[in-house]
Task: inverse folding
């Protein structure tokens, strides 16, 4: 048994597998032990707690859900441990094979929030919504909690017996008939375990497979270099960035890092504005993505034509290492009729400008392609970067650790169908739902006698009739593992809590199950990971322990980033051959394609039970709780559908029905439908159930990224889509609101100028509105002499719209998820929202996009405060517009009078009800209430520092007042301890950046800056003095503490449009006295 | 007695005969007949129509009770409110009912001070209507708050938290304005009713009625001293109530005018709201008077002249409201303020265009028909038009509140309000509450101010009985009914 004084709690196995404990549990609480498996009552929790405490006291083990050894009664309390103070641990979350460094905030042994690990070389660039929402997975009430044997509840023990027998048999046969299907992992422990399995079972078929794979990237670069190389772009070093369908700002696991790099190139911080330069971003894409919305020049084409565009660019810059073979192949493709069609109109304009820019920025340009672009596109992109001399400057190649998985997966399905697989382990993943439809995975599974599924959920695969065993999987915060981030840096995955899964019900992770399959010792993840690292580091004893401690503390193993392997010879012949093959397949320009989009909210469906992600408005469409068939307005008109009308999309005899959604900026020949939705079967969590439409129904092995549609027709049915932004140019077809009203005000709401205009008028943002003399009806709040003047600055030039701040705020401030039904009624509760607008008079073809995060402006002269009859919203001296929940009676007048509409009202007791998916518009459900509020597990995620609001009260952004108070206490204590009180003046120092709001902390691009205006050299004070800084609706005399920095863009093409004129110097109001 | 008018067609008293006054009470020979005609309503079984109406109204009120209970137990979310539109039917109904409540006090107080004798026929039930309308109005601010159980925090009650309401909030002014208005109107109504309650007491046959009316008439004996004090009190209350007629709706309009929502933030609101309130109040009086005089046989007391006069006021205030609508548009355009301009264009042509055009056609176009005397004196037409005006005025409040909130400054937050069945149920139920109270009033209290009506009869003139005065075949019992106001020579009518 473990000793008492361990700095980090370790083996889960010590506890869960200890016979003493298990026997004791069964003897003492036989009901509780099994009841806990299906229900989640406080009583049970306390029972287990009680048992744990008792055992901890006896020195047998620690306890569940508390870091072992740390809650052992105060007699042996850990050093520096202040009860009620959060403790931070570094760990890592592996997403699709890429480690995401996280810093886990834990209160009394209860992890509540995931932030980025700023110490990590690959961290510190904010944290995506998906990563943050993983904390919900830990406490998800729908999580699998019991072992299932043929769909009936069982225990881990009989499975262990089964596994031991099976292992013996398989070992005897050399692994014949054994197959292991797992998701992508990059860590050495996984590699080590797989190597051991391979040696013990040489004939075993081991497949690492992801439904949303990087096969195209891997194969394309392999084609270009005849080597396994991974392109690693440095967006911060490029002046010209060309993205061929690469949604690098939002759509990939490592987007926060890419967004941080991109924003560096967009920084408007030249000392002399006249010398300001910023990078230019070209995006060629089929639909509209976050990256596309941030593009300076954008072109919408079919995804299937991306290879043609790559060829056009390659031809334009003369790519190909001087290989005549490649050159002629490129020329042949470009000359084809379909290619020429692309060059009509706007396509010609953008591509010409793009090529010219690339040519004049050799070595400082960068071209990338998205994971859904074809392998050929990736190969051409590699060739172009090579020709431009970008290699080693804006792009580096490192060893690719993954292998293309599609063929291996197909081979597995084939052998399953052939009946040659006897035992199949599915470790993570849900292939019954997400495998390519032509594999007929569920059918293939029936031919496998023993299927063992390890997963977080008893999902479609676990509950399929042919699944023999389902084992609940441990969450990444519950088990040890390791993983490598994109750049190769190795991190150890450190758990914070013992598995929430009841004792005797598994709670294993993949390496533990593989160890058990091997029948070798050790079988606990801690020992396995430690063993791997001992072997890899060559250290031992105290030396290893010290290093190990450091790795855990900082969250990574220093110096493990992969080395660049640039200048591999270009395989021109291979690319040329692929080009020639592709030329024959270019589709006629009038054939519609269906693109299988990658939705960062649910990914391949694995996050679909996370309510934060379901309710998070998509950054582009602002749709919640569903996916939709995105298409251009023109195409929607052609087939006679409007928003929410159902369409039937048929591909090769298979079809799916989905709600149509005309979307500005879409290519007229492309329809996008994201995967990961439309889960209906048994075993789907209550949140994921019935959300959206299942694109997997038409996704085949041959066409995992796009397919040419046989037909797309209206079915005549309607579907209700809950979206958070109703009106805009996008909806001009449906909207009855006069469109001019929107277009007229946008230039003053979201101020932007091209870099050229900025050079001439650095303070353009301050001269866009006329602010008349300011008169207040009331005497204004007196903020003179305040100790602090908290303020925020939001840089519209850096904000990509990725919505990480929205989720961070939700996690920090216990913001409820309200459900689709309530979103339909316009009652979403987000304290910060991302507004998205389209610019231009043609709703189908917008000239530009605008993104603006909006939260409480903390007006010094706040309209909400003046109208509250009970003084429930008042100003504090430091300038924060406070909301006193206890005093609020809910007249909602404050919200009516708030020009920014950032106040949120608890129409129901949202914290005490489960999110409802959908009810008719006129139907109001009395069952909004559940007996005892949300699942007690879900409650464990709440931030204890923030009040949970009841129904009938208003709430809104507080500038994270709890963080401000915590920082004040911290610095004041330090000041007092160092004798500061002697002066008698309460002037303790607070360094700039001592307080970080949750949104600021999560923001990948540092678009949000918070601080004290009283400190004249604080970041926020400097930004507020910037010529780009402006107040939203300044003319209302609200005197906002949140100010925006106007966006500076870098368009390549001069445009004659009304909107461009708004920024023209001639239009500046010379009488403006803004800022006076 | 209904017999007294038998055989007579409805006399046209809308013309002012040269040299004399048009009679305000028709076909009436004796004071006693007036007394009897009013009192018999309270003393006898009501007509079947009353029962039918009462059951319907009671049912609607019951539904109101259900909706409100459901609302309070479940949350304000049972209404269709959403983030930009935090007020909709609730405050629409509040303002609507407060507006209705204006006519009664206007008739009782302002017309009294202006010596409009014709008010006597209609003032009693107009005042009752006011009281009940304000009861309905008061319901909504009470139940619309998120935490109803704490609504009392709106009142300045000393408490251990030492928290006072926030005196800059127009909602608080509302609390004061409406509660003051309600109190004064109630006292005014009750004081005016005391002599008539005494009459009912004196005529009552059952023990219970004698006791109840006796209690309510607080010892009224009709002595000269009583009459003297009564008249002074009535005059003072009239003087007190008069500014309230103007202030209440001005204060209610501040809820909007003081805010900065485009479409609310308008200086024309106070007078415009008062005009609108009188407009809707008179329309409601007509809507109620027309069936009431039919049902209870009060055509001799509520004559065509009364209705004609009220229709003229509807025409006048309707024109004022129409002027206000056009002035709002003019100012929105003239101001050059982008958001203001949009608010009004959006009102007329945006997502709620239909509500706006219902409002305009009901409130501006409909009353113009009252330029024609044939319309003003046609019972069916005036009834229909008065209903139109009521509908229009409800929509006016809806348009002001909902269209302004739904599309304010930031287009991203724009949304649409869709009512739920609870919204509609609460609105309909409020009419049930109003109807129930009004029907009970008709059944048990003197619907017409008996004493005051007698004062405008020729008999009330001390010189009655002399040759040349019409219809006086009875000697005037001097002193039995005092000349309430002034010598007849100063009597006037519109």
Result:
């Amino acid at each position: 048994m473990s000793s008492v004084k361990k700095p980090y709690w370790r083996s889960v196995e010590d506890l869960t597998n200890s016979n003493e404990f298990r026997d004791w549990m069964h003897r003492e609480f036989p009901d509780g032990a099994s009841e806990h498996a299906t229900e989640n009552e406080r009583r049970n929790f306390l029972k287990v707690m009680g048992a744990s405490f008792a055992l901890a006291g006896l020195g047998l083990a620690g306890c569940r859900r508390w870091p072992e050894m740390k809650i052992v009664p105060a007699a042996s309390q850990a050093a520096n441990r202040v009860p009620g103070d959060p403790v931070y641990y570094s760990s890592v979350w592996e997403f699709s094979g890429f480690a995401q460094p996280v810093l886990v905030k834990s209160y009394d042994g209860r992890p509540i929030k995931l932030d980025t690990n700023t110490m990590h070389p690959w961290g510190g660039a904010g944290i995506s919504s998906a990563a943050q929402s993983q904390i919900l997975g830990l406490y998800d009430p729908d999580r699998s909690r019991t072992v299932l044997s043929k769909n009936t509840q069982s225990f881990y023990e009989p499975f262990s017996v089964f596994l031991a027998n099976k292992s013996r048999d398989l070992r005897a046969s050399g692994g014949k008939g054994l197959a292991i299907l797992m998701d992508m992992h990059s860590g050495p422990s996984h590699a080590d375990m797989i190597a051991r399995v391979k040696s013990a079972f040489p004939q075993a078929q081991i497949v690492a497979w992801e439904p949303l794979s990087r096969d195209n990237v891997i194969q394309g670069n392999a084609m270009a270099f005849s080597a396994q190389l991974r392109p690693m772009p440095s967006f911060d070093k490029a002046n010209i960035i060309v993205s061929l369908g690469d949604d690098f700002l939002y759509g990939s696991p490592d987007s926060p890092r890419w967004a941080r790099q991109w924003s560096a190139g967009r920084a408007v911080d030249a000392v002399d504005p006249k010398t300001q330069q910023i990078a230019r971003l070209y995006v060629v894409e089929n639909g509209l993505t976050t990256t596309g919305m941030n593009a300076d020049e954008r072109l919408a084409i079919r995804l299937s034509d991306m290879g043609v565009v790559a060829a056009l660019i390659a031809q334009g810059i003369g790519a190909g290492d001087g290989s005549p073979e490649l050159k002629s192949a490129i020329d042949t493709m470009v000359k084809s009729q379909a290619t020429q069609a692309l060059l009509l109109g706007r396509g010609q304009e953008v591509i010409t400008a793009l090529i010219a820019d690339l040519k004049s920025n050799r070595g400082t340009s960068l071209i990338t392609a998205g994971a859904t672009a074809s392998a050929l596109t990736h190969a051409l992109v590699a060739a172009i970067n090579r020709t431009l001399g970008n290699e080693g400057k804006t792009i580096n190649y490192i060893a690719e650790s993954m292998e293309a998985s599609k063929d291996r997966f197909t081979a597995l399905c084939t052998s399953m169908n052939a009946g040659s697989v006897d035992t199949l382990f599915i470790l993570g993943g849900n292939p019954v739902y997400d495998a390519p439809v032509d594999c007929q995975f569920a059918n293939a599974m029936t031919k496998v006698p023993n299927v063992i599924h390890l997963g977080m959920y008893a999902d479609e695969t676990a509950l399929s009739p042919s699944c023999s065993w389902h084992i609940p999987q441990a969450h990444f915060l519950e088990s040890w593992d390791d993983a490598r981030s994109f750049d190769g840096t190795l991190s150890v995955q450190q758990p914070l809590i013992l598995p929430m899964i009841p004792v005797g019900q598994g709670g294993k992770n993949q390496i533990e199950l593989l160890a058990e399959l091997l029948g070798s010792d050790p079988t606990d993840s801690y020992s396995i990971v430690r063993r791997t690292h001992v072997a890899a580091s060559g250290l031992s004893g105290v030396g290893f322990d010290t290093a190990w401690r450091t790795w855990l503390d900082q969250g990574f193993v220093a110096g493990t980033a992969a080395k660049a392997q640039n200048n591999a010879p270009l395989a021109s012949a291979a690319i040329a051959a692929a080009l020639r093959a592709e030329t024959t397949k270019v589709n006629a320009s009038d054939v519609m394609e269906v693109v299988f989009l990658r939705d960062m909210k649910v990914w391949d469906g694995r996050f679909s039970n996370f309510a934060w992600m379901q309710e998070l408005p998509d950054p582009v469409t602002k749709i919640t709780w569903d996916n939709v068939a995105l298409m251009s307005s023109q195409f929607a008109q052609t087939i006679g559908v409007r928003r929410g009308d159902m369409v039937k999309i048929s591909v090769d005899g298979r079809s799916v029905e989905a709600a149509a959604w005309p979307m500005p900026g879409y290519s007229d020949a492309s329809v996008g439908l994201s995967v990961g939705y439309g889960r209906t079967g048994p075993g789907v969590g209550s949140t994921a159930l019935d959300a959206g439409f299942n694109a997997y129904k038409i996704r085949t092995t041959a066409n995992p990224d796009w397919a040419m549609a046989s037909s797309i027709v209206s079915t005549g049915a309607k579907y209700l889509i809950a979206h958070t932004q109703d009106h805009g140019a996008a909806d001009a077809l449906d909207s009855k609101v006069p469109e001019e009203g929107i277009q007229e005000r946008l230039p003053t709401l979201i101020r932007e100028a091209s870099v050229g205009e900025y050079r001439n008028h650095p303070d353009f943002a301050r001269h866009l509105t006329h602010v008349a003399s300011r008169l207040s009806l009331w005497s204004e709040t007196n903020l003179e002499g305040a100790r602090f003047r908290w303020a925020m600055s939001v840089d519209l030039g850096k904000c990509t719209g990725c919505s990480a701040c929205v989720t961070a705020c939700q996690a920090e401030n216990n913001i409820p998820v309200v459900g689709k039904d309530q979103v339909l009624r316009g009652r979403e509760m987000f304290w910060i929202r991302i507004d998205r607008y389209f610019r231009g008079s043609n709703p189908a073809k917008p000239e530009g996009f605008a993104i603006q995060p909006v939260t409480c402006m903390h007006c010094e002269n706040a309209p909400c405060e003046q109208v509250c009859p009970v003084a429930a919203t008042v100003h504090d001296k430091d300038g924060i517009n406070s909301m006193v929940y206890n005093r609020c009676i809910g007249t909602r007048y404050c919200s009516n009078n708030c020009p920014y509409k950032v106040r949120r009202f608890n129409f129901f007791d949202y914290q005490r009800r489960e999110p409802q998916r959908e009810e008719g518009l006129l139907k109001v459900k009395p069952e909004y209430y559940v007996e005892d509020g949300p699942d007690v597990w879900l409650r464990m995620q709440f931030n204890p520092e923030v009040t949970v609001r009841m129904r009938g009260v208003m709430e809104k952004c507080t500038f994270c007042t709890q963080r401000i108070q915590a920082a004040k206490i911290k610095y004041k204590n330090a000041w007092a301890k160092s004798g500061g009180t002697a002066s008698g003046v309460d002037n303790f120092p607070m360094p700039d950046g001592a307080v970080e709001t949750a949104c600021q902390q999560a923001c990948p691009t540092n678009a949000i800056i918070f601080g004290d205006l009283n400190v004249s050299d604080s970041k926020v004070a400097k930004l507020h003095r910037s010529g780009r800084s402006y107040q939203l609706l300044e003319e209302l005399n609200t005197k906002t503490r949140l100010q925006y920095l106007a966006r500076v863009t870098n368009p390549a093409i001069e445009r004659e449009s009304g909107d461009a004129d708004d920024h023209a110097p001639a239009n500046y109001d010379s009488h403006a006295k803004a800022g006076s | 007695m209904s017999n007294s008018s038998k055989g007579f067609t409805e006399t046209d008293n809308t013309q002012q005969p040269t040299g004399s006054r048009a009679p305000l009470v028709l076909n009436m020979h004796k004071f006693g007949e007036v007394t009897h005609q009013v009192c018999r309503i309270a003393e006898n079984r009501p007509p079947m129509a009353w029962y039918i109406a009462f059951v319907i109204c009671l049912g609607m009120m019951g539904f109101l009770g259900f909706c409100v209970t459901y609302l309070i137990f479940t949350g304000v979310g049972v209404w269709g409110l959403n983030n930009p539109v935090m007020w909709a039917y609730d405050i629409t109904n509040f303002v609507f009912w407060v507006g209705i409540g204006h006519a009664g006090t206007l008739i009782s107080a302002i017309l009294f001070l202006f010596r409009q004798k014709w008010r006597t026929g209609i003032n009693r039930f107009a005042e009752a209507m006011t009281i009940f309308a304000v009861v309905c109005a008061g319901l909504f601010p009470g139940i619309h708050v998120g935490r109803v159980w704490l609504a009392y925090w709106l009142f300045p009650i000393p408490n251990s938290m030492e928290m006072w309401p926030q005196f800059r909030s127009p909602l608080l002014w509302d609390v004061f304005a409406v509660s003051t208005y309600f109190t004064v109107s109630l006292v005014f109504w009750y004081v005016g009713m005391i002599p008539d309650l005494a009459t009912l007491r004196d005529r009552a046959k059952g023990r219970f009625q004698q006791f109840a009316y006796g209690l309510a008439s607080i010892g009224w004996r009709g002595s000269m001293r009583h009459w003297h004090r009564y008249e002074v009190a009535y005059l003072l209350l009239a003087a007190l109530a008069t500014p309230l007629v103007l202030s209440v709706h001005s204060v209610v309009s501040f809820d909007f005018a003081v805010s900065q929502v485009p479409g609310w933030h308008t200086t024309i609101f106070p007078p415009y709201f008062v005009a609108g309130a009188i407009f809707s109040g008179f329309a409601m009086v007509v809507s109620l008077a027309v069936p009431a005089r039919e049902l209870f046989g009060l055509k001799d007391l509520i004559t065509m002249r009364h209705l004609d006069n009220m229709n003229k006021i509807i025409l006048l205030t309707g024109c004022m409201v129409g002027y206000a609508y056009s002035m709002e548009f003019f100012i929105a355009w003239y101001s050059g303020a982008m958001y203001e301009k949009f608010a009004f264009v959006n009102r007329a042509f945006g997502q709620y265009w239909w509500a706006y055009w219902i409002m305009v056609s009901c409130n501006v176009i409909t009353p113009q028909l009252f330029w024609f005397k044939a319309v003003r004196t046609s019972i069916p037409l005036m009834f229909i038009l008065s209903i139109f005006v009521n509908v229009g005025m409800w929509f006016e409040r809806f348009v002001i509140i909902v269209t302004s909130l739904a599309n304010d400054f930031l287009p991203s937050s724009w949304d649409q309000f869709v009512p739920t069945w609870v919204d509609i149920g609460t609105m309909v139920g409020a009419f049930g509450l109003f109807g129930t109270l009004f029907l009970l009033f008709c059944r048990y209290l003197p619907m017409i101010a008996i004493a005051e009506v007698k004062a405008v009869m020729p008999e009330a003139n001390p010189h009655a009985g002399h040759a040349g005065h019409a219809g006086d075949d009875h000697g005037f019992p001097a002193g039995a009914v005092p000349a309430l106001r002034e010598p007849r020579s100063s009597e006037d009518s519109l």
Remarks:
- The longest strand of chain A covers residues 98-107.
